[in-house]
Amino acid sequence: MKVDAKTQQPLSDLAARFVDIVASVNAGGASSAVEQVVQQARSRVPGADSASITTYRRGQFTTTAASDDLSRHGDDLQYELGSGPCVDAVVDDAIYTPRDIAVDERWPEYGPRVSDELGVSSMLSFRLHTGSTESLDGLNIYSRTVGAFDEDAFLTGLFLATQASLAISRAKVENLEKALATSREIGTAIGVLMSSSKLTREQAFGLLRVASQESNRRLREVAAEVVDTGTLGPARPARAPRTARPVRPLRPAPPPRPA
Questions:
Q1: Which residues neighbour 181 within 8 Å (Cβ) at sequence distance 6 or greater?
Q2: Class of the 177-229 domain?
Q3: pLDDT tens digits, the chain, 259 residues: what are they?
Q4: Which of 12, 28, 80, 240 suits a disulfide with 32, CB 3.0-4.6 Å?
């Protein structure tokens, strides 16, 4: 299939922009990728003024990343009303692109309020597909301009939504791997203490917890030390109880003076 010169140049520009976005999002690793997505959405999506990521978990919506206060306040208003482009995109598994939110009949309460209170006119809202069964997520992009988002903006937003989905998935995998590694290390430490001190599992775990509290360290740090050394280091010595001050005896009252 032939691509004429007029189409080829915009497509190459779009491809170069996407490559640059991927590099920027992944520059700091999975831990900062979600924050990078919203910053990239605000700066890279033509017409965007603000962006955020919404998470729905255990019956509650929260904003897990935001480029600034505009998107935070816009999100909070959606959570308060229980309706809005991003909330509905997450729940309905859809994409919403209101051109003039103030008069959009789909959001008769949210539209006028977000327009009057925050000056928001148009939005892009995408459901993120992270593969998680524990939470749902969405990318929300705000603009103060009516009809701000053209096809170029939509494609860039859709690409960023894909990057956000990947970033959230990677972060969850990393957290799970850390949790599993910690669990294995604690289990190994319990086994070491059971073998060396002839303790039950419950007693060994209890010792780890006490050592963690007394030394003011995380449980996994204490467990790692046991695995490395084969023993549980001495707990922080308890403070000596304060000696109570002796009560000074009361002086006897002086005899009354003669009148």
A1: none
A2: mainly alpha
A3: 444 444 445 666 666 666 666 666 666 555 577 888 899 899 889 999 999 999 999 899 999 999 999 999 999 999 999 999 999 999 999 999 999 999 999 999 999 999 999 999 999 999 998 877 788 999 999 999 999 999 999 999 998 888 887 877 776 666 555 655 667 777 777 787 788 877 787 777 777 778 878 888 887 778 788 878 877 765 444 344 444 455 455 455 555 565 5
A4: 28
Q: What is the CA radius of gyration of the chain?
A: 30
- The reported pTM is 0.63
CA separation for the pair 254, 249 (Å, rounded):
15
Q: Inter-axis angle of helices 5-26 and 30-44, to 10 degrees? A: 140
Residues of the chain with CATH 1.10.10.10: 177-229
Q: Are 125 and 89 in contact (CB under 8 A)?
A: yes
Q: What's CA 14's distance to the chain center, in Å?
A: 29
Whether residue 45 contacts residue 139, with contact meaning beta carbons closer than 8 Å, is answered with: no
CA distance 214 to 211: 5
CA dist 98 and 123 (Å) reads 6
